Amino acid sequence: MSAQAPSAVILVRATSFVPNPATAADNAFQAQPPEGQTEFTTSEKALAEMDGLAAALREVGVRVHVFDDDDHTRPDSVFPNNWLSTHAGGTVAVYPMYASNRRHERRHDVLEMLKSEYRVQAIVDYSGLEPDGIFLEGTGAMVLDHVSRVAYTARSHRADVAVLERFCTDFNYEPMAFDAVDSDGVPVYHTNVIACVGTDVAMIALEMIPDETRREQVRERLAVTGRTVVELTEQQIREFAGNAVELCGRTSTGKRRYVMAMSARAKASLRPEQIAAIEESCEIVAVEIPTIELAGGSVRCMIAGVHLDRRAPLEEAELTEAVGAINEDNPITPDGRYVAKDYA
Q1: Which of 53, 190, 191, 215 is the most exposed place for a label (fewest CB within 10 A)?
Q2: Which Gene3D superfamilies match (predicted)?
C-alpha cells in the first residue's frame, strides 16, 4: 500500500443534499442551485453524481465503502473527510467541526466498520474542543504529506493552529501553517481547495500565499523529495482544480495503478502541460459533479481515504456476525451500502 495514496475510501451517499446555509459565510466557493430547481431535484442530481464517483473509483480498482445518509439535517454529510482521517499504523482521528449542524455527521457505524475490516489500534478524538470554539476540520483543513510527514494548513476559522500542533505531536507530522487568501483578500476556508499532494506530484496555488518567504518555503518543502510541483492559478482554484486526491487502484490483472481523482470541471481548467505533468505519475479520473460542487467542495472533499491495513478476510459465519455488530438494528442495504447511525 502506498503511503500517500490509499487503496480504499469512504463515501457518504446523502439523500437530502443542499448547499449548507450555515457554512456559506466563510466558504466563497458555495453557490445556489439554478433558480426554480427544487430541493428534491437538487438531491436527486447529487445522488446520481455520488453514485457516479463510486462507480468510477471501483472501475479503476479502488475499494469503496458507501454509507447511506437520509438525515435532512446533515446537508454536508457528503464530505466525510472533514470529521475523519485514518493513518498507517492503525490510528483514526475524529475532528472538531466549525458549523454546529455538521457536528452530528460523525458516525459510530463508520468507526465500527473500520475496526471490523481494518486494523485499528486507537481512535484519537479532538471533537471535545468544539465547546471551546477550537476547530480543525480534518483533511479539509490539512493537506497531509504522508511521505515527508508534513501537514500543510491554511489558517482559518476551521483550522486552529493550536489544534494543528496537537495533531502533529500526536501523529508525528511537521506543522506548516500559512495564510492563504483570494484576490479580494478573503481567507481560503479549507487548505484542500488550493492544494493536493500526491506521491510524485503536487498541485498548489502558491500565488494565493501572500507572504513571499512562506510561499517559497512551501514550494521547497513540497519539492524536497523530487516531487513535481504544478502551480495552479486562482481561477483554476475556483474551478476546483486543487481539490483532487491521489488513490491507489488495481488493474484487472491485480497490478497497482495510481490515479488522481478530480471533477470534470477541475480537469477542464487545467492546461495541457499541467495535465501532462500529472499523468507522468498517475492517471486522471475525472467525474461530473456540478451539483455537489454547489456546496463549495469537490471530489477531494467527498473522499475519506483509508490508510489502514486490511484484516484477513472473515469466514462466512464470522462475516455475518461482524455485519450484525456494525449495523445492530440498521442492516446493510441489499446492494451492500451501510445505513446511517450517529457517532456516539
Answers
A1: 215
A2: L-arginine/glycine Amidinotransferase, Chain A
